[in-house]
Amino acid sequence: MLIEFDKMEEQTVPHFQGGEGAFLTKMRVDELGKILRGRLEPGSTIGLHTHDTSSEIIYILAGKGKVLYDGEYEPLSAGSCHYCPKGHSHSLINDSDALLEFFAVVPVQ
Q1: What is the pLDDT of residues 34-70, one digit of tens each?
Q2: Which residues contact 39 (CB under 8 A, 6 or more apart)?
Q3: What was the pLDDT predicted at 29?
């Protein structure tokens, strides 16, 4: 199946997971999970949350930021890949002056 993010309408989700600012996304969702391309503007975050029933993989396409993973900060930049296994917590943070763009997969488990 081909997923063409460039042909999808972008959704704006304010304060996603209790975060700051807005999460901008183009997303494919079905019974097996989510596949998305997302953006965080400078100062925006995806709030801290626990993956109780699934894992998540986030690949950074452009920009810089950090992730708070199980209480520790990890730097992210283009080419970085963050993995949050089931049962763990994380938050994605754009603490830079530029857009943070990423690709993420959240499978249903």
Answers
A1: 999 999 999 999 999 999 999 999 999 999 999 999 9
A2: 23, 24, 25, 99, 100, 101, 102
A3: 95
Question: Do the bridges between strand 56-62 and strand 81-84 make them parallel or antiparallel, or are there none, so unpaired?
Answer: antiparallel
C-alpha span between 106 and 44 (Å, rounded): 21
| C-alpha–C-alpha distance, residues 83 and 97, integer Å | 24
CA-wise closest residue to 25 among 101, 107, 86, 106:
101
Torsional class of 85: left (φ above 0), alpha (ψ -120 to 50), beta (otherwise): beta
Residue 6: what are its φ and ψ, rounded to 5°?
Answer: -65, -20
In the chain, the N- to C-terminal Cα span, in Å, equals: 21
pLDDT in tens, 6-32: 999 999 999 999 999 999 999 999 999
For residues 1 and 14, give the distance between their C-alpha atoms in angstroms, rounded to a whole number: 30
